[in-house]
Amino acid sequence: MDYELTETHKLIRDTARRIARERVQPRAAQIDEEGQYPEDIFAVFREAGLLGLTIPVEYGGAASFLALALAVEETAKYCCASGLILLLSALSTQSIVIGGSEEQRQAWLPRSAAGEIRGAFCLTEPNAGSDVAAIESRARRDGDEYVIDGEKMFISGGSVAHFVVTFVKTDPAAGSRGFSAFIVPTDSPGFSVARLDRKMGVTGVPTANLVFQDCRVPVANLIGEEGRGFRIAMLTMSTCRPVVGARGLGLAQGALAYALEFARERRTFGRPILEHQAIQFMLADMATQIEAARHLIYHACSLIDQGKYERQYAPYLSFAKVFATEMAVKVSSDALQILGAQGYMKDHPLERHYRDARQLMIVEGTSQVQRMIIARGLAEGDIVYG
Ligand SMILES: Cc1cc2nc3c(=O)[nH]c(=O)nc-3n(C[C@H](O)[C@H](O)[C@H](O)COP(=O)(O)OP(=O)(O)OC[C@H]3O[C@@H](n4cnc5c(N)ncnc54)[C@H](O)[C@@H]3O)c2cc1C
């Protein structure tokens, strides 16, 4: 492990920790109940300068995935949806950082870092989730414009975004080499929000079905060149993956802390349940899993911050995602169990943590996809043991 927290990292973590306790925690249950995007929390993040953490410094950011992971971890201790708002600030801009021209970076990154605008990342379609190369959306050039047609599903924040980065085929016969990425302002003609999904958790960030119908954008909105989109999509997802893990890491800590306090107070058979060894061992296992996830995530993020996120590093980014997200599901379930019937009730945050955690194993590559990436790394010798 070769990561170290700098003074800047600690400052960002401490700022996020204070905001999470003072501003996010009191709103968390209400955000879940109402299922409305929390503009007030977005404004709090904007004022604290937390919306551009992965954007290069010259465009107003802090250029650090480790910093983002720390901020997300602190936030998700209380509210996984608010952690997603921070993550989306990276997911929506990372494609422009990776593949964008200087003009595109100047046009979109400083305003995103300042929280003047926000974006969404559009890859999934009705017939293409894990099998990304199966996307059917198309774009064709028409003079100085591209015309985009297609449908995107389950897009986090898609209905509250000012722009989306979307992936389509400009050369369908070329498979993944025919992918291209576009920046689409959401007031573009032909762009619409068709539907919002009703879902199990993370209700504060809407998940939208988006339609592009004869949607016209200037040629200047093509990110990089035609045919570069698949690589841009893969690198964007793999760099943001450990931060999905950080949402799980924070959530699990929030769940553990709550269950521990409950276990001190709740008495059965004449003593606090914390004095029963079965409960002690559950808590010990939860803490051990949390610490293991923390190391995987910080290590993965430090690799990204060193520019090590090309294909051969992908397994390390997947380790962090798959372990931390599955850990969050297990820990939140065990924490709920420690509360007994009360854990199942909405008077406590554990049923919310459990519902929210379940999303993490699906987004930005399911647990199965992460294992495919890790297995490929083993087969191709990117990870070597022995
Ligand atoms: C709340 C939420 C928010 C989301 N936000 C976004 C977003 O902002 N942007 C975006 O583009 N997408 C988003 N998604 C979509 C998400 O990325 C996809 O759901 C995910 O990639 C899986 O695709 P799928 O649902 O089509 O499942 P499928 O690909 O149809 O897979 C179905 C099942 O089969 C398994 N599977 C598939 N292929 C294999 C294989 N080869 N081997 C073994 N198992 C396999 C999968 O792991 C899964 O369990 C979001 C999803 C959710 C639930």
Beta strand count: 10
CATH architecture of the largest domain: Up-down Bundle
Measure the end-to-end span: 18 Å
Categorize the overall geometry.
globular
Uncertain regions: pLDDT < 50 for 5+ in a row? none
CATH topology of the largest domain: Butyryl-CoA Dehydrogenase, subunit A, domain 3
CATH class of the largest domain: Mainly Alpha
Q: Using only CA atoms, what is the Rg?
A: 21 Å
Number of domains: 3
Order of helices and strands: HHHHHHHEEEEEEEEHEEHHHH
Helix/strand/pairing category: alpha+beta
CATH superfamily of the largest domain: Butyryl-CoA Dehydrogenase, subunit A, domain 3
Helix content, binned percent: 40-55%
Q: State the assembly state of the protein chains.
A: single chain
Features:
single chain; 386 residues; alpha+beta; Butyryl-Coa Dehydrogenase, subunit A, domain 1; Butyryl-CoA Dehydrogenase, subunit A, domain 3; 3 domains; four-stranded mixed β-sheet; 10 strands; binds flavin-adenine dinucleotide
Question: What does the secondary structure layout of this molecule look like, with pairings?
Answer:
Layout: H1 7-24, H2 28-34, H3 39-48, H4 65-76, H5 80-91, H6 94-99, H7 102-113, E1 119-122, E2 138-142, E3 145-156, E4 163-169, E5 179-185, E6 191-196, E7 207-218, E8 222-223, H8 229-265, E9 267-268, E10 271-272, H9 277-305, H10 314-338, H11 350-360, H12 367-379
Parallel strand pairs: 1-4
Antiparallel strand pairs: 2-3, 3-7, 4-5, 5-8, 6-7, 9-10
Bound molecules: flavin-adenine dinucleotide (FAD).
